[in-house]
Amino acid sequence: MRPSGRSLDQMRDVTIETNVTKHAEGSCMIKVGDTHVLCTATLEERVPPFVKGSGLGWVTAEYGMLPRSTTSRMRREATAGKQGGRTVEIQRLIGRSLRAGVDRVALGERQITIDCDVIQADGGTRCAAITGGWVALKLAVNKLMKTGAVITDPLIDPVAAVSCGIYAGQSVLDLDYPEDSEAGVDGNFIMTGSKKLIEVQMSAEGQVFSRAQMNELMDLAEKGVSELVALQKAATSA
Questions:
Q1: Which parts of the sequence bind phosphate (predicted)?
Q2: Among 5, 66, 104, 160, which residue's CB has the most CB atoms within a 10 Å radius?
Q3: Strand 58-65 and strand 111-120: pairing?
Q4: Are strands 58-65 and 170-173 parallel, antiparallel or unpaired?
């Protein structure tokens, strides 16, 4: 039995509320169980120097956790004068995951920055950030298309992410914190709406795992991502 009482292939309850901030070109609050992440998209008519003159657009991301997003207060990284290694790794993951679903030629020479701020953490924050980040990105692109600044939709395919792992000897979908902290195997699966893999992060936390178990986790991830993509499409079609 999972601590939450969910079945092995059951996601936590997921909601996506769009247009939650006034100024961002795209925004949403995604809630995956008790993990809540605010995602905003900022459009700029410029690109980084290494992209300038190429005719290609750029999508990048920043990620952070608020001090009381966890059970005890975390120090703001700004007060330490630098980002931690985990933060840098996650925001790079978000950026390259979202870029995998973008036609950068169609986007044109402009940049969209996705900011993902974890309001409350209960496992799977990077997966929620990627899933919500795509929604914010889509809303910003919709505005570009509405104004005629972009003619062809540069978003080739939705991008979503979900965690899977082996908990108490069983393959489970969408780990919450009690499961994540005790999982023998922990993995994050980033996929497109057409079930193409972008990235898989897996590690044996307390036990090794077989190819058959890996396949079980892949099947669970496909199910979870399909459900998330349906929610993304519903949130951005209004």
A1: 86, 124-126
A2: 160
A3: parallel
A4: unpaired
Q: What is the pLDDT of residue 23?
A: 97
Sole residue written with tokens 């920043």? 62
Two structure tokens written together for 150 = 């972009």
Residues 6+ apart with CB under 8 A from 20: 27, 28, 29, 38
CA 159 from chain center: how many Å? 8
pLDDT of residue 238: 65
Binding site residues for phosphate, as ranges? 86, 124-126
- Distance, in Å, from the CA atom of 94 to the CA atom of 145, rounded to the nearest integer, reads 23
Please state the three-class secondary structure of 131-178 as a single string: HHHHHHHHHHHHHHHHHCCCCCCCECCCEEEEEEEEECCEEEECCCHH
**DSSP letter, residue 184:** S
What is the pTM (predicted TM-score) of this model?
0.96
C-alpha dihedral (83, 85, 90, 92), degrees to nearest 10: 80
Query: 14-236: CATH homologous superfamily?
Result: GHMP Kinase, N-terminal domain (3.30.230.70)
